[in-house]
Amino acid sequence: MHVLVVHNRYGSAQPSGENKVVDQEVALLREGGHRVGVFERRSDDIAGRSLLGKAAVPLLVPWNPGVRTELAARLRAERPDVVHVHNVFPLLSPAVLAACADAGVPAVATLHNYTQVCPPGTLQREGRPCAECVGATPLPAVRHGCYRGSRLATVPLAVSLSANRRRWWSGVERFLCISAAQRDVLVRAGMPAGRLAVKHNFVPDPGTVRTEPGEHLLYLGRLAEAKGVRLLMAAWDALAADGGVGVPLVIAGTGPLEPEVTAWAAGRDDVRYVGLYDTAQCREAIARSVAVVAPSTWLEAFGLVVVEAMAAGVPTVAAGHGAFVELVEDGVTGLLHRPNDAASLASRLRRITAAPDGGREMGRAARRRYEQDFSPAVGLERLLEEYRTAIAGRSALARGGDSRAGRGDGDSR
Fold first, then answer.
1. pLDDT at 402
2. Which keywords annotate this record (predicted)?
């Protein structure tokens, strides 16, 4: 199969699970003998633009005509079987869908978050769940400045969502949701249920599985409010005041809360802030963990670190909402705490560290779940199945005539 992957890479200064997923899928397809091209833009490149070029970036978020022209030309020249779209913000834009229609190539899109119904894609505002824009106009997001706390920065995202909603819904053959929880939200928002499939992300087998109880608890991810970092700090302070749990907390990652985390961890024996780990360091840290902690306050669409822990035979302590509920079987492959509840998180951390034998059994169960649902072999099979479905659907429409609004439209932008 010939696949062209379309992705706007997130900045390299902070960890990106989405970048990792894209790179792993490209490698998986190539290892499986498939021909894979990549059409990408990099957010890192914005810094090197002129002042005028930087000022123009928000205007490209809803629509980048140059991308449409460039991608359509490449599609006509290479004739891939399918285009797989990931992130298009901020430099690619939904113009990639028009390019696919121009060239008559079916498009598949992985939905890594909730940007189809929420401008910042988080379904969260001021640390609390928010669905004001779901199934409605995105004006509340602008009013509240939901993207980076700025009304001005939120406007391009809101405009893109409003202007391109029908284009997304009609221009993509298969939407790949990364969890059933995410799919449920999008169906309720009115997205076409028949083209929303659940395809979990896979992770490579790390090659080693934990056999010992572990020597630390591990938070691995972006240091941001939505990821539950402040909640974790509050829970850990409560545990420390009550005598601790006998193992240190290791925090690996970077993000907007890094200064706060650095100051909080300074001078403590029970906390180690280690900065941003590379892939090898991440795998080593996970394999040496009693448990991986995922206390997100927002509704995670997936939770890559949870599956990475499963692959290493390590249980997870995670928030009991969003995709975590389908990834973590409470008491079997890990423990779930009440969302946004520091006391509940603290109790689960104490429980997982107090019973090493139970933790090992949870780790073994987590590894079995990984092999069944999240291994590379399973990931490749499900990915190819969705590609074939998209290709067949596009072929059927071509034979019978396309009546969907927006397909091959006469867009003059």
1. 53
2. Glycosyltransferase, Transferase
